[in-house]
Structures are given as structure tokens and as C-alpha cells.
Amino acid sequence: MANFLSDGIEIAYQVYGKGKPIVLVHGFASNGAVNWLATSWIQTLNEAGYRCITIDNRGHGNSEKLYDRALYGARMMAGDVAGLIRYLKLGPVPVMGYSMGARIATFVALDHPETISALIIGGLGINMVRGFNNSDEIIKGLLAPSLEAVSDPVGRQFRKFAEHTKSDMNALAACMGSSREPIRADDLAKIKIPTLVAVGSEDEIGGDPEALAALFEDGEALIIADRDHMRATGDKNFKSGVIEFLAKRGA
Questions:
Q1: Over the stretch 227-242, which tens digit does the pLDDT of each residue have?
Q2: Which positions are tagged coiled coil (predicted)?
Q3: How many domains, in total, are found in the chain?
Q4: Global pTM exceeds 0.90
Q5: Using CA atoms, how far apart are residues 30 and 191, in angstroms rounded to an integer?
Q6: Comparing C-alpha atoms, which of 181, 138, 173, 178 is closest to residue 67?
Q7: CATH number of the domain bearing residue 231
């Protein structure tokens, strides 16, 4: 795994395969390998002719761990992604993000439009705009002495996943404290590039993908049947929908 410096912070990344580049941004408490390699996304995209570049967001995976919540704004992490695109001299490329990574990817489109040619939002629908009210329970779950000490269902879900990915709980708690930076509906209307919003039909965390897609100038929705937030990540219909979208849009 390689790394580069983004505003003095060490950010890890990995490149898989050859072909047209696509940048992949993982979700909260995950990392590039768990979100994209273990789910066979890398294999699928490589076989479709894409060179995959995964990034470990700050505080995650092999990237530098930070404990100040002020260093985890989604806009800051979008700067890391745009910085990687510039560092690798990729030019405008498709960027796909899942969950927190989808919010980060959207800020890439807003703040660094010269780096992105198509936007794929996974696991995050209208709740990107409406926001969430469970951050405190997730933080409590992450900072609890053990999984057994966590009673809130959402807090348990995130703590269990964070343990599975061998994450730094204190870094994740700081990240959760500020990474859910709100995006206004009128800001989404400024994004002109082709945008796909893909969310599981049972995903209560992400919310309605069609309502979010309607806010983009050139947005379309993909409902991933019978999948919740966690199980949609590696779904075969999600993958085929993304490949079809990229081919149709020439991205």
C-alpha cells in the first residue's frame, strides 16, 4: 500500500489493475480493502476495464489516525480524495463512494469539480440532505468498554462492524463527531455531472434514493432490491447497475 500527504496528514491508497481509472471511497469504520476488495468490487470493475484506486479515509485503515473531531469534516476528507486524484495525475475521473464515502464523493463534486467526471452515490439517499439523529449513540457505542456494554441497536451495529475491521475506536468517535456534514438541496442542483444514487430497498440509514436523485441536474436512481445498508454493499445488482451506468455515460 502506498501513501501521500494531504495537508500534512498521511493518507493511504492502493491501485488495482489497468485501464480507465475510477476512485473508490469507503464508508465509516471501513477501509478500502473491506469495502471494495472483500466485496469483489475490485474484481468486477477490473473485468469491466477499470483501474481501481482505493483510498483509506483519514482515521481509517492504514491512514493516519487523528483524535480531534475538527479534523474530520467531510469537506476535508473530500480534499484528501481530490488531492489523491491530483497526486496521481488522473484528470477528471468517476468517483464512487459508499455511505460516508458517498457524502465525501459528493463534496468532491461540489468543491473540486475539475477532478470528477461522474458521481456514484451508494448507501445514501435523501438522508444526505435530511441528516441523521443517531450520531451520539454511535459515538457511545464506539467508546464503550466492550460490545456487551452497548445496548442501543444502531450503536451495537457500528461497534460490531468497527471491531470486525480492527478500527481505532477513538479515531472513529472523533470522525463521527463531525463527518456527517450537511449538504443542502440547492447545492446538489449545482452538480452537473452524471450522478447515480444506489440504495438498498430496506436501507433505513440511507433513505430514499429517488428523492435524492431528483435533486441533481443529471441524476438517476437505482433501488437495490431486498438489501439493507450493510448487505447492499457487495450486491450483484448494485455492481451491474454501476457498470451499466458507467458504460451508458461514457465514464
A1: 999 999 999 999 999 9
A2: none
A3: 1
A4: yes
A5: 27
A6: 173
A7: 3.40.50.1820
